[in-house]
Amino acid sequence: MKIGIDKIGFYAPHIYVDMNKLAVARNVEPEKFTIGIGQSQMAVAPVTQDSVSLAANAALEIIDDEDREKIDFVIFGSESGIDHSKSGAVYVHQLLGLNPHARAIEVKQACYGATAGIQMAKGHIALNPDSKVLVLGSDIARYGLKTSGESTQGAGAVAMIISANPRIMELEEHNVYLTNDIMDFWRPIYSDMAFVDGKFSNEQYILFFNKVWEAYKEKAGLQLSDMEAICFHLPYTKMGLKALRTVLDEASEDVQNRLLYNYQASTTYNRNVGNIYTGSLYLSLLSLLENKEELQDGARIGMYSYGSGAVGEFFSGILQPGFKKHLFVEAHQQLFARRKEVSVEEYEVIFEETLPKDGSDIELDITKDPAAICLSGTIDNKRQYVNKLR
What we know:
With 390 residues, the protein is α+β, with helices and mostly antiparallel strands. It has 2 domains: 3-169 and 327-387, Peroxisomal Thiolase, Chain A, domain 1 (3-Layer(aba) Sandwich), CATH 3.40.47.10; 171-321, 3-Layer(aba) Sandwich (Peroxisomal Thiolase, Chain A, domain 1). Helices cover 35% and strands 25% of the residues. Strands 1, 4, 5, 6, 7, 8, 9, 12, 13 and 14 form a 10-stranded mixed β-sheet that branches. The longest helix has 23 residues, at 198-220. The radius of gyration is 20 Å and the shape is globular.
């Protein structure tokens, strides 16, 4: 039985800051941001969007009434959770009006959460072939204004429906994973900002990739030449390229050129959204599928997932016949076209707008947020969400 990605969509906030202008404001050469780390724009989350609303908006785009009935498991991968107890999946389940007879959980392991969710989903589908699983990767990357990590911030969510007989990608069985207890990136529960050892994290990202790639080749009996493209978790778009370059000499010049060319297509969306943690790998996959017109049915796509702390995994998937018909290309083009640029000054004000930390009630103005699903405030320490389509 084939199991894999039946639908995939994403959502990013309606505002962004230009990285050239941010560089100038921070007295940094613009090329350090646009070429050095490979970012052009950074999505900015207004206070009316959090990890729950971003995920719900991403899923709203792809689900239909049949999905609402058949989805009996919602897995919410995030490191930007809003509650230490209640899962973001429960909120999304209600906001989307899904079948009440469903499981709903939140999964956490830095940027690896959504990948873990997909593997759990595969097991569920194997036991329940007629059901569907909604897997979400939703995050807001925050390091603070004028910090070394500021240029790698971002916000957004990816939603995927995992099912039997998938229409987009069958996920193969040659998964290889690796865990090691390291401190390259972390966020203690008392902090709303992440801590990162940037140089160490980059080194570990590449080290983990090399180790799981070597193990994958042995387990699957496949080589670089068998990959049409490799998609990477992208904290910034240059990171995946650094890892890819470490193995390119294993392949012929033609294969190297193909992988490098397709890598660029896989970074288009990430370059203009920024880091979305758990969703970054799958935003890269979506970018490849929607921006590389020459992709053919039956092509094998490699995928490298990395979550600091750290867990890494390499796996692959096969594009299904007619997969292009099941993408939401026009909707995503419109999403980017409708976004509004804000100045660096406006971005700084928006960044500092947060919910009260003392539990005070607050009503937020959601009329300025065009998203269908918004955070409208808090009452009695409870977040309030609105689905404008209801």
